[in-house]
Design a protein that fits this description.
2 helices, 5-stranded antiparallel sheet, about 100 residues, two-stranded antiparallel ribbon
Amino acid sequence: MVVNAEDLTIQRINPAYGRVLGSRDVRGLPVSELFSGPDLDQLIKLLKTAAREGQTIHTPPIQASVIDGGNDGNRMVHTAVPITDEKGVIVHRLFIYSEKLE
């Protein structure tokens, strides 16, 4: 998924997230309305750090997963990659990849 770096609103969803979400349109919503779980605050802080510092981050396994019918117990690893302007200076967006641990 791609989110706006300034306010962490969702801009685009890739097919993997689309399968989880079904027909739900989440574009324009904040990440905090898509993910849930006891570690959601930790995920949001790490995303803000990636945007501010322009560095890729990898979370440890945390309980912050896509809301999918109340299954909040999933432990996931999230990676956020900054997408910068053409000069590589200003982070405009973050690409977020999430992987569910089995």
